[in-house]
Amino acid sequence: MKQLLLISMSLFASSLFAQTPYESSMKKALGFWNEQKNEEAAALFQRIAKVDKEQWLPNYYQALIFTTSALREPVKEKKESLIQQALQIISSVDSSTKSAEWYNVEALAMIAELTIDPMVKATTLSPKIVMTYKKALSLDPKNPRALAGLVDFEMQSKHYFNEDISKLCQQLIQIERMFDEQKSDIPFYPTWGKERVTDLLKNDCVKHTD
Fold it and tell me: Is residue 121 part of a domain?
C-alpha cells in the first residue's frame, strides 16, 4: 500500500495566453504547490474559487492538495482531517456537472482513507474505489488518470495476494503513452499521473515487460 502514496505533482500551465488576474493567481497557487507549500497553495486556491465562481479548477486543485497530502500524512488524525476537507469539496460539486477528473480525485481520497486501516476498510472501500474510477471512465474513456488509477489499484491488490501482474504491466505501457496524447484547451487542465505510471513500470513491472 505504500506505493499508493506516490502521487505525481507535475502540472501543466500554458504560457501562450494573456495574463488575467485568474491566470496569474492560478500560476502563483500552482507555484506554491510545486514548492510543497501546500497550505499556502490550498488557501490561495480557495480565494480564487470565491472570486471566480464559474471556474472549477481552483476547487479541484484545492481538493487534490488535501488528498495528496492525506496520502502522505502519517498521523491518523491529520490524515482523517485532510480527507474530510477533500471530500467536503468534492461533495459540493453538482453530480450533473462532475467531470471525470473529479471522480479521479474522489477515488484517491478513498484510497487515502483505505490506507488508514487497510485490513478493516478494504472490504467496503475497495468496491467503491473501483466503481468511482469506472464512473470517470464512463465520462471520459481515454482519461489516462482514471485508467492508470484503476490499474494501479488493481496492481496493489494483486501484490497483496501475490498474484501475477503481467497483463496490468502491458496496460500501463499503453496508458503511459496516453498521457502525451491527451490534449485540452482549458488552461491549467490536469496532467498529473504519468510519473506514477513510469515509476510502476520501472519498479513493479521490471520483470514483466521484457
Answer: yes
Instruction: Look at residue 14 and tell me whether its pLDDT is greater than 90.
Output: no
The structure's pTM equals 0.89
SS3 at position 182 = coil
Longest dimension (CA), the chain: 52
Q: And the C-alpha cell for 11? A: 502540472
Spatial distance between the Cα atoms of 146 and 150, rounded to a whole number of angstroms = 6
In this predicted structure, the answer to whether residue 70 has a pLDDT above a threshold of 50 is yes
Residue type at 137?
L
Tally of structural domains, the chain? 1
Determine the Cα–Cα distance for residues 182 and 177; give it in Å rounded to an integer: 9
Instruction: Confirm whether 210 is domain-assigned.
Output: no
Domain that holds residue 54: 2-202
